[in-house]
Amino acid sequence: MATSEANKETVARLFDAFRAGDTEAFNELIVQDYKQHNPQAGDGLQAVKDFFSQFGPVDVEVHRVIAEGDFVAVHSHYKTFNSAGVDIFRFSEDGKIIEHWDVLQEVPATTASGNDMFSQLS
Questions:
Q1: What is the average pLDDT value for the chain, to the nearest integer?
Q2: Which of 2, 53, 76, 83 could form a disulfide bond with 6, CB atoms 3.0-4.6 angstroms apart?
Q3: In this protein, which residues make up the domain named SnoaL-like (predicted)?
Q4: Sign of torsion, CA 52 43 2 70?
Q5: Architecture of the CATH domain 4-106
């Protein structure tokens, strides 16, 4: 069974592939019958490859990675899409991504609190 640390490393490799626009790297990271909960993308490895291939390299900055059991959550700034996101990945016992959920929101120019969407305040 893959450890939480190994799963975090797999997610780091996935985000590196996003940044490089390298959807072929997904073959080593995601199972064929991958389940997708983003309403804009279909199920399966090929569907996620097709979804990301339309964008090319994605400028994304990861701010936090939290892992527990077979889940990894990532808080990121998808600069290409001007979006803040939390992605949740579920892993198989052999350490591949088998399921994905996300919550995305546009990054506003200002906030009511004055706090940005990514920094950690003391």
A1: 96
A2: 2
A3: 11-100
A4: positive
A5: Roll (3.10)
